[in-house]
Fold each of these.
Amino acid sequence: MDVKTAIEIGDATTLHRLLAEAPARANELIRWGKDCRSATHPLHYVSDMLFENTLQRGKELPLVEALIQAGADLDFQRDGKGETPLIGAASLGAEEVGLRLLDAGARPEPRGLFGETALHWAALLGEDRLAARLVPGADPNLRDEKYKSPPLGWAIHGWCDPPAGNRGRQHEVVVLLVAAGATVEPEWLESEKVRGNPAMLAALQRRTV
């Protein structure tokens, strides 16, 4: 069995053994997907398999722990750009993985392919526990480079149009971001969906431009 298979089936015992035999495997990219064109860091691959429903939810943390103990690069970015394992966890609904990576020392500020941070993704998917860890020290008004939107805009979009992997707690994330000083754009307050939801409207009206 190899590292890829051990992650896919959630076999942390075998993963520990494989990494003990060759710790460098903790940072060897895993090829997968159509024609194996994708090459992903093992820490990111754990989140990928959760998102694909290949890995049973609840088995991810022992795998992450094995990789961390073997020296996996918590802030790996292919060619120095793109998603880190933390951004991957946030974008794929792997909230527990993201929290463990932060505990292990992963940096929250790196930006992904669109100039977004892990906080943008946590906001979009309604991952309030992860957002609560990312908000302190972050710029709540930092805009990504593709959509030109801050995390609050991503949270509202995720609430209006729930994405795959949605955790469904965008309202809680909005409360966190507004309390941290996020600017509320007038068009968000004018949205029919927002105006039709008293709880969301109240959360946004705590601070307006």
Note: The first helix runs from residue 3 to 9.
Amino acid sequence: MSPVGATGLTMTNTHPALRRCWHPVARSNEVSSNPIRVLLLGQPLVLYRIKGAVVCFADRCPHRRTPLSLGSCDGETLQCAYHGWRFGGDGRCVEIPALGPGGSVPSQARLIPMAAVAERSGMIFVAPEQPIAPLAVIEESEDPAFEMGELPAMRARASIGLLADNFLDMAHFPFVHRGTFGADEAAEVPRYEVERDGWSFTAHREHPFANREDPGVAQGIRPLVQSRRLTYRLDAPFHLYLRIDFVEAGGSNVIGFFLQPETDESCRIYTTLWRNDLGGDPDAMAAAIKFEVAVLEEDLRVQEAFDELVLPLDQTMEIHTRSDRSTLELRRLLADLVVAADQPA
């Protein structure tokens, strides 16, 4: 691997270093006892549940390489749709119908497992190889004061690195998001601090904004222009979090942004909201989801237009300013990850 800062170092959707990381592959409610096929880092995987627990293997039967996602689950086994071979939850073949009762099953008849599988924050995460960084925790997802709302999953021709860069970027709001919230945003980004902590970092900013959602504005209780506090966090490689605290109106809006690198030119995007300021109103949550979909579509209009779907990690390949502190830290962290991944697990 190239050392940190090496000329031309970039991050693609299928960079080898990403095999030693946690990645989202599905929402929890997408995975049942019926096997499904997902793509991660160019590799097809099969997901299903056994006694409620999620298991994940390469989507390939060791017999004739048939996709196991075509098969079905019966109790605690997955049966291949081609020749009926059955596999237990540990991936070991337990039955080959063509050999009859008592037939000898070859010891090498095993599925290829992933290093780790976890379910958290309403998502299924997979690490193909032993992960370098821990799986992030979103504390609000476990807090009963916060209601959860899920945006429809979206598939895009985009770079997960550039999408992460976009999520952390604070200078594009007045230009990309004019149709949603950006029209009231000031173009200048005041100086802010970024704090690195191992394989994660946070950035904080407080600024004025037009709070058109606040019913107190219409009632004359509070002014239209209020303050909000933004707390961004990235956990390696692309687990993204934004907490928006409304200073005058009270309440918080938390956005979890989960990126699944499918192929070099494709990724799946999951966005989840946690709100403690909607009072259990389903219409308010539906409106919040609709708004965030519109925001994401504005971002994708730019992101899907890139010719090269790579994130440069070499700092000399782009021009950086003080407003880019968070996105520059993203490049530093990922460059460190590339070096760490080249070391023995």
Note: The helical segments are 160-168, 173-176, 215-218, 282-303, 325-341.
Amino acid sequence: MFVKVNDVKLYYEVTGQGRPFILVHGNGEDHTIFDKLTAQLAPHYTVYALDSRSHGKSDRVPVLRYSEMADDVAAFIQALGLEKPLYYGFSDGGIIGLILAGRYQGLLEKLVVSGANTTPEAVKPWVRRAMKLMNRLRPDPLLELMITQPHITPAQLKHIDVPTLVLAGEKDLISEEHTRAIAAAIPGARLLILPGETHGSYVVHSDKLYAAMQSFIEDPTPRIFE
């Protein structure tokens, strides 16, 4: 299915029944990475798996900005009339989720992010060096996005007013110190570092992610502690 928001046509697939649950993939990927997660969520939720702008079957744009991608998701929710959806975002999708929840307070029911960062410097140095080299050899808007963005402040994270779960792999490309700082800045956020996992080993075509988030998303009375 397609929907046009902010002058960009986004592709998405809908599966299951129940409360709305939005899934947003990482850089250079598309909604299909969530095949196993979608199958596990579908008996309980209506899953909306998106292709972000310039990804999958969605429209291409010359320059990518995380802030605009977050605005796309907000407009998507409004266009489809979704009532308080849950949101899960991986890597770039996690960044989008942090911006979305901070900018559009009260829009979501719950937020789950994994492998997210609030500054390019949070990516481990050897990964940043590799991305910069590849972008010099062959300029790519997707690489440029990761090299130069995001710039999310702790003050912006403190505006997030929905129950939040922050996930990361023990061997993530994002430093564990940074992941812990994200969770600490969001009021009442829960943190889970998954032993032995890399950036995407428990996410991409994996049945591990549902188990990691299940108790949080199924908690009927999540509370936020200041």
Note: The chain is about 35% helix and 25% strand.
Amino acid sequence: MNRSSLPISVNTMKKWYESEDKVLQCTLPFQRHSGMWSAIIKSNLIWSILSDSYIPPIVLLKDKRGVDGKGKDIFGYQVLEGQQRLITTLFPFLNDEWALHSAVEPVEYEGFTYDIAGKKYSELEEELQDIIKNYRFTVQAIENYSMEEAEKLYFNINSGVALSPMQKGKARLGNELIEFLNTLLNGNFFTQAINITESQALKEDDLLMLMQGMALLDQRHENREFKNISAATMLCYAESIRGTYNDNKKEMLLEVVDFLDRAFTSKNKFLRKNNTPIAFVMAKTALEQGIEPEAFRAFINDFANSLYPAYEEASGSGNVKILNVNMRLRVMFLAMCEYFKIAPESIQKPFAEDIPLYMESFSENIEVNEEVSSSDEPEVAETENADTTADMDVLDDSDNSASGEVVDSSPGEDSYADESTEG
């Protein structure tokens, strides 16, 4: 096995990959699935290129394919290391197929600061476009190798890659479901609209918020019970839906996220970690009522600028407890009914049915319910901005703790079918 350096730009490798004779390919059977990087990780690669930060080498397998008319050797290349950087990220970005995440930081170049958040390649300044397409990775070409040697090299390169707790938890979902969820996370709502910090994005809190919304929809439609919606509980939930999340539910999620993508095209101050799962569930209700995306956005903005003491009270310490989550759902549900002149009683399966429909009852009710729930097993209070890493560590145990328990009610196959038939 021989190794050599290959002086080649991103743009040239892209042309090789898209050429008819496929000079560059990515078809090795032991490669991980492409498309596994989140929007923020892809965006940070672009930021690293523009900031001249360190980026690990690309490794290609080099094979002789034949000779040309002049007797010169013709070579082909296989991507051994760099699939996510080239195939999933850079080539599609150069084709304007995705936009940078709203949380990506500005870049400094020749004394100027450029705001690149939310932009596609064609929307960047020309000098920044040139940096990206002409960027030269450190490229190592491997020749005269056996497939066994290539496979061993691949696993040696990747054996030390550190993953965030949420990335480790993706294994609980399985490849098919996580690839489906990734398509939802790459839309406007999760990459541009939610108010998420770069640190939260790197921990993949966007996936956490999506799964919290999914769990709350399961609570509404299938009567699933959760003690809380913490990160630990959501990873247990992920394991419980692996291989069972049916096509009806996937279609429903597509409709909800498409609705939100159309409703929110830029960052919204209200869509923080605490509020996004609540707005997600309300979007499903808005779809059921025939509310247009623009009107739903107007409602969310009105709600954000209004005073709802019970909502604020349920957003403080312990905001992931299901009691507080349901209180926020209830307040926003009633506010939406009032905003759109809808009778709450007319909507099937209203939220938190044990909570009175009247706004003035909220503060009193939450105090009563807190006293009732005090007899439960103690739970660690978690606030909106708390680091969820500690919760993740619970999953290393063989049994589920109180903070990670999911009570499964064995959802039916057609649980998300025609809502109008349900009583």
Note: Confidence is low (pLDDT under 50) at residues 360-423.
